[in-house]
Task: inverse folding
């Protein structure tokens, strides 16, 4: 999962970061964070799947998670 590795690298550099995944990848994200010494690092979990959503549906879904993303970034 490249997004988890990116989050880890940003955080190591002092740049607040989070990962956005779908629920199907939750165990993989936990494993990667734990394996890289960042167990418990917060990330955002969207319902799975999202690939079948139309653009307006995806926009509506993502807007529901804006506050959660911002809270992880300490904005």
Result:
């Amino acid at each position: 999962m490249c997004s988890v590795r990116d989050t880890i690298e940003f955080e190591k550099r002092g740049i607040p970061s989070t990962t956005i995944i779908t629920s199907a990848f939750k165990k993989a994200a936990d494993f990667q964070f734990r394996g890289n010494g960042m167990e418990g690092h917060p990330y955002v979990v969207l319902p799975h799947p999202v690939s079948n959503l139309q653009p307006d549906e995806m926009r509506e879904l993502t807007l529901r998670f804006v506050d959660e993303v911002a809270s992880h970034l300490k904005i």
